[in-house]
Write a structure and sequence with these properties.
Blueprint lengths: L1 H25 L24 E5 L2 E5 L5 H11 L5 E5 L10 H14 L4 E4 L16 H6 L15 E5 L2 E5 L11 H12 L7 E5 L16 H14 L3 E3 L6 E5 L4 E6 L3 E7 L4 E8 L9 E6 L23
Parallel strand pairs: 3-4, 6-7, 7-8
Antiparallel strand pairs: 1-2, 1-3, 2-11, 5-6, 9-10, 11-12, 12-13
Helix pairs in contact: 5-6
Length: about 325
């Protein structure tokens, strides 16, 4: 008698919420609806800038998310033409809530269907769940990148070439120590770069190796200690990171913070030819024409800057210097 009452009651208390949650997780939002997630800090807070970069005109953007800032950033980005969009992690901010991957896909589709979108992962893309202890199930399924083409065995790190540029996408949230598969792959990938064919080498990763903001202080340090030497030896031109919601640019080698501001925006890295590229930072709160920060780059494949004769990379013979 009691069992007849208690059993359905227990079923209602414990199983129904699970079913509802499951339904919620796998339900599809109506097409075209965009979920606007709330930002947890005010616009003026220094940790709030979403960063986009764009170059050659390749385009870069970190920590995209799904806020009205995302829409504003994408509108700014699409205001000018570009070849490739590069995103160093934190795509949907789904954090386990699967419909957010759908709404993120719909939000970026108008841009992502027009140009290649190349991404690497951020901490919000990990999604470790009880049945998926290694995480990245949605990220790897929804954003498969062409990693096998560059000899990588993981969707979390790979490289590709576009317009005279070798672009390396690294994984901040998979192993990176000297014995790791990622480190060994990076070493062999850098050794294969032909600077005559691709004079530029760019690297994207999520957690910055240099950062003067209080947020995420030191989070990229162990990866820096493991891999930075490889970058210097290979004369990598530029490293782009995401994670911290502020824009900051460092002088290479010093490393001296040269420019920092708490703003959303995107950047454009425009490669003019084999020796010169122009970087510009576009804040969302300005018209796109206003450039808040800019700098010329000279490719380290030909420039003698930062040259250490002990560190001649294998791909450049001394005669070419
Ligand atoms: C590359 O572009 C820069 C900047 O416009 C220019 O000064 C330089 O002469 C160009 N080099 C070549 C080889 O065209």
């Amino acid at each position: 008698m009691w069992a007849r009452i208690i059993f359905p009651l227990l079923l209602t208390i414990f199983v129904l919420p699970l079913l509802l949650q499951a339904r919620d997780d796998f339900s599809r939002q109506p097409a075209g609806q965009v979920i606007l997630t709330r930002h947890d800090r005010s616009d003026s807070d220094p940790q709030q800038a979403h960063i986009v970069f764009l170059s050659c005109s390749i385009q870069f953007k970190g920590d995209l998310g799904q806020t009205d800032w995302t829409a504003s950033t994408l509108a700014h980005v699409d205001g000018q033409d570009y070849d490739v969009f590069l995103l160093p992690g934190d795509l949907s901010y789904a954090n386990g809530h699967q419909p957010l991957w759908d709404s993120f896909g719909r939000l970026v589709e108008p841009s992502a269907s027009r140009r290649p979108w190349m991404v690497t992962q951020g901490n919000h893309d990990i999604e470790i769940l009880p049945n998926h202890p290694k995480g990245f199930v949605s990220y790897n399924s929804r954003w498969p990148m062409p990693y096998e083409e560059s000899g990588s065995t993981s969707n979390l790190y790979y490289s590709f070439e576009v317009a005279g540029t070798h672009i390396i996408m690294l994984g901040s949230y998979t192993d990176f120590d000297v014995d790791s598969a990622q480190y060994k792959w990076l070493e062999s990938d850098l050794a294969r770069v032909d600077r005559n064919k691709t004079p530029w080498i760019l690297v994207l990763l999520h957690a910055p190796w240099y950062n003067t903001n209080t947020a995420h202080q030191g989070e990229g340090e162990s990866m820096r200690q493991s891999m930075e030497e490889l970058f210097y030896k290979a004369r990598v031109d530029v490293v782009f990171a995401g994670h911290v919601h502020a824009y900051e640019r460092f002088e290479p080698a010093s490393p001296l913070s040269l420019y920092r501001e708490p703003s959303f925006g995107h950047g454009r890295f425009r490669i003019l030819n084999e020796t010169h590229a122009f970087w510009s930072w576009h804040r969302n709160n300005d018209a796109d024409a206003i450039v808040a920060d800019d700098v010329w780059f000279e490719s380290l494949s030909t420039s003698k800057a930062c040259w250490d004769t002990e560190q001649v990379p294998p791909s450049v013979s001394k005669d070419e210097l």
